[in-house]
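Re-run with default settings, no changes from the original entry. Doing this only to confirm the output is reproducible before filing.
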Amino acid sequence: MAAINEAAIRKDLNDLIEAITAAPLAGKAGSPVPGVYQSVPQSETNLADSLNQLRLQVKYLLFDLEATRRENRYLRQMIENRHRRNRDNEDSPGEGPDLQ
């Protein structure tokens, strides 16, 4: 499985946010479909709110991703330590079950 490069994901998300923020708003004066947006300020407010919500959701997803990675590392370490203890117990004489 290919490793996910967190820095590349963050850069792509930041680029996406910048592109969305810089994009011209649909419904401004001179729109190819006249009368679609009757209240331009309201649509701009809704768009700004939507962008803010999207940013917040992306931040939560990144936070969740980082937490999942930490938990995954911790659980792998627990499994590895358990396997190491089992090997050490098998290799140590006198600690295993009596075979008389």
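Residues 43-90 form one domain. Residues 29-37 have pLDDT under 50 and may be disordered.
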